[in-house]
Amino acid sequence: MQTRQLGNTGPRLTTIGLGTWAMGGGDWKFSWGPQDDVESISTIHRALDLGINWIDTAAVYGYGHSEVVVGRALAGIPASERPLVFTKCGLRWSDADRMAMPVRDSRPARVRGECEASLRRLGVERIDLYQFHWPDETGTPVEDSWGEMLRLVDEGKVRWPGVSNFDVALLERCGKLGHVQSLQPPFSMIRRDVAGTEIPWCAKHGTGVIVYSPMQSGLLTDSFTAARVAAFPPDDWRRLSPQHQSPSLERNLALRDALKPIAAKHGATTAAVAVAWTLAWPGVTAAIVGARSPQQVDGWLPAATLRLDAADLAAIASAIAKTGAGSGPTTPA
Questions:
Q1: Own/partner pairs for 123-127, CB < 8 Å, 24+ apart?
Q2: In this structure, which long-range contacts are made by residues 221-228, counting pairs with CB atoms below 8 Å and at least 24 apart in sequence?
């Protein structure tokens, strides 16, 4: 497993980390449908056995449940052998109405309270990378929220501070108070816009980039079909995703099909090609890849060592143009 340093001063990460969004289970606003906890724990152990050295989760995944599952998976592993654990804060949900939209709330007291709750659920003394999940919508200045994040670092409750889904303007405001260790943006062959803005900013300022949804929530995998969308559980959030509906769905699946010859050339899956493409962009440190079973880990793990050549990248750019899938730059510098 190859590694890259997260920003100028962060840890060395395997180029792929395990995402645990779906491990939050069913019955909440952005669920992926029901998920067996035993299977989730087996999946985590499989990823670690294969050399992945970090796990990404969030308080909002299953409204605390994903963090509990990660904590259970880590409980039997000696502290010296545990992976780095990343989580996120800043989304306030309602247990009374689990299908209500969570509120983006990064008030300082909320950030501190969420940190304490995540430490308990994860069963750790310190969060390795703590990130604001989304920009605040309560009217709290980002400087107040980031200042509290930096105090958590000073107190030893957080090792490195980061953000997710922030634009350049917010990154610059945070950077005036203290270094932003990492940004976690959405990035895939379909959602490419950050390649022209946030990723170059991070490269210039020594901020690592951990991309999420490199397979576009399953669309860029071999087994995905339009029929599968129709069969999603009622609480699967992808039912409402524009990328999983016509006309985008057909364009996205056409792009996926165009990846098959490249995958065959490398003896890999289309999922591995999709993830490797994100890692080919200068400034990207690593990619979060979700899994719900050990077998899914085996399917995308080769992306960690897959190197796309110039001909591959040109073919992908051509396929993007031909299918009209997504938006944003198409070829790494």
A1: 123/71, 123/74, 123/75, 124/71, 124/74, 124/85, 126/156, 126/157, 126/158, 126/159, 127/85, 127/86, 127/87, 127/157, 127/158, 127/159
A2: 221/256, 221/269, 221/270, 221/271, 221/274, 221/299, 222/256, 222/260, 222/263, 222/269, 222/270, 222/271, 224/253, 224/256, 225/253, 226/250, 226/253
Q: Of the residues 61, 63, 130, 212, which is catalytic?
A: 61
Please give the backbone phi and psi of residue 165, each rounded to the nearest 5 degrees, phi first: 65, 25
**pLDDT tens, 164-191?**
999 999 999 999 999 999 999 999 999 9
At 292-316, the pLDDT tens digits run: 999 999 989 999 999 999 999 999 9
Tell me, yes or no, if 63 is annotated catalytic. no
Per-residue pLDDT at 65: 98
Average pLDDT over residues 122-129: 97
Q: For Cα atoms 31, 294, 49, give the angle at the middle one, nearest 5 degrees.
A: 120
What are the residues facing 85 on neighbouring strands? 55
49 in Cβ contact with 42 (< 8 Å) = no
What count of other Cβ atoms lies within 10 Å of the Cβ of residue 39?
A: 14
**CB-based contacts of 67, cutoff 8 Å, min separation 6:** 57, 58, 59, 61, 87, 118, 121, 122
Rounded Cα distance, 287 and 297, in Å: 13
Q: Six-digit token pair at 93? A: 């949900």
